[in-house]
Design a protein that fits this description.
With about 220 residues, the protein is an all-alpha fold. The protein is built from eight helices and no strands.
């Protein structure tokens, strides 16, 4: 793995990126209150609560989210929001990648997957029948995609999480997922956590001498 460079500049740019979109959305909502009807912000309150005891779809929620006249606009804005939250994730991949050459197809997957999951989440929202139908369709398709590094799976999971959050109209959740993932990834990479077992704390934690390479 290449030597860790200073994270001051890239981390500052990433924080400014997140702060910019929070300020932009806050300004738009305060300046144009009517736009909040179209923004996919919130959304968790539409999920089935603990008092739901059957598997019947919540038709009122489906009608509000899919059959309303604003549904295409909400889907478009949710997809754009998912893409915007995936951009810093791709930056974290750039910074922390151990490979000499970036896998372009994998990077494109990180960027596009949240958009696809957003649309799918809106389609199957609160509908068990649609969810099982989708699972059957996906099971009929054979995917062949190998990851170069085990850590690459984390990027796939976070991309799916961002898409699901955006799909249920909870861009705030997508924002938090993206922000915490990028911040944690960069900090762990910078600290080179787990690279060696040197140091008194790790020696005490693992109960082995700092010079040992393998367990008995």
């Amino acid at each position: 793995m290449r030597r860790s460079a200073s994270l001051l500049i890239p981390l500052s740019l990433i924080l400014m990126y997140y702060a910019f979109w929070v300020a932009a959305v806050t300004f738009l909502v305060s300046r144009y209150p009517g736009i909040s009807e179209y923004l996919p912000v919130g959304g968790l309150d539409s999920l089935p609560g603990g008092e739901i005891t059957s598997f019947e779809p919540v038709y009122t929620s489906v009608e509000r989210n899919l059959l309303s006249g604003t549904a295409p606009i909400r889907l478009f804005l949710a997809s754009i929001g998912a893409l915007l939250m995936a951009i810093p994730v791709s930056w974290a991949y750039f910074i922390t990648s151990r490979a000499r050459r970036i896998d372009q197809s994998f990077l494109q997957t990180i960027m596009i997957l949240p958009i696809l999951v957003t649309g799918i989440a809106m389609i199957v929202l609160n509908s068990i029948a649609l969810a099982f139908s989708l699972a059957g369709i996906v099971a009929a398709v054979r995917f062949r995609f190998s990851l170069n590094q085990p850590s690459d799976a984390m990027y796939i999971f976070v991309a799916i999480g961002i898409g699901l959050a955006a799909g249920i109209g909870a861009l705030g959740i997508a924002y938090v997922i993206s922000f915490v993932f990028v911040l944690a990834t960069l900090c762990i990479w910078k600290l080179e956590y787990g690279k060696t077992l040197a140091g008194p704390f790790l020696t005490m934690l693992t109960r082995r001498d700092g010079g040992e390479d393998d367990y008995d």
